[in-house]
Design brief:
It comes from Plantactinospora endophytica. 82% of the residues lie in helices and 0% in strands. It has helices at 3-80, 96-112, 115-141, 149-152, 154-179. Helix 1 (3-80) runs antiparallel to helix 2 (96-112) and helix 2 packs antiparallel against helix 3 (115-141).
């Protein structure tokens, strides 16, 4: 075979091998880059989903706490006023609409979770209900009295305020953990 043909064949073969190697390396690098981009994209979507969930939960928790505070304000109004004569039925009672609104906000918290927050929300709602029943009992027992319900049964009032403080604080701590909003200790 002629030297020129041999050199041409060798040059062609080496060029083809070089092109093949370059293509293979390029494909391998591209595949690695695509996998990395896919992983970044998945991580970003997961973070966006988690962020949306935190925002939805935060809104539910804030709404719930607003309804809790409204119920506490109505209960406080009743604690500081003398008992009505005769006692008001549930449908006229100014506390009752606040309790209904609290129940609705509680349902949203139960749906959004997580379990620990829902459990503490249950305790807050139970505490508000216990305070309401205790207050109605004090008001019913002391119809026409001139002193406020808080004065007429100061032990029940103190117990209600203590339960409020405990259960509300526990709910807030659980909610902070759920949305990643821990406060640093002082």
């Amino acid at each position: 075979m002629n030297d020129a043909v041999a050199v041409g064949l060798l040059t062609s073969a080496s060029t083809l091998v070089a092109v093949g190697l370059t293509g293979g390396v390029s494909a391998w690098v591209s595949r690695a880059q695509l996998r990395h981009q896919a992983a970044l994209s998945t991580a970003e979507r997961d973070e966006q989903r988690a962020s949306r969930q935190r925002d939805v939960r935060r809104d539910a928790y804030v709404h719930f706490l607003g309804r809790v505070d409204e119920a506490y304000r109505r209960l406080d109004d009743r604690w500081t006023a003398p008992p009505p004569e005769p006692p008001e039925p549930h449908l006229v009672d100014p506390v009752y609409p606040a309790l209904r609104a609290l129940d609705e906000a509680h349902s949203v918290v139960l749906l959004e979770g997580p379990y620990d927050v829902a459990e503490h929300a249950d305790l807050v709602v139970a505490s508000v209900g216990d305070e309401y029943r205790s207050q109605r009992q004090v008001l019913g027992t002391h119809q026409g009295a001139l002193d406020s319900a808080a004065v007429l049964d100061s032990a029940a009032h103190r117990a209600a305020i203590s339960a409020r403080t405990l259960h509300r604080a526990n709910f807030i701590e659980a909610a902070r953990k759920a949305i990643g909003g821990h406060l640093t200790s002082r």
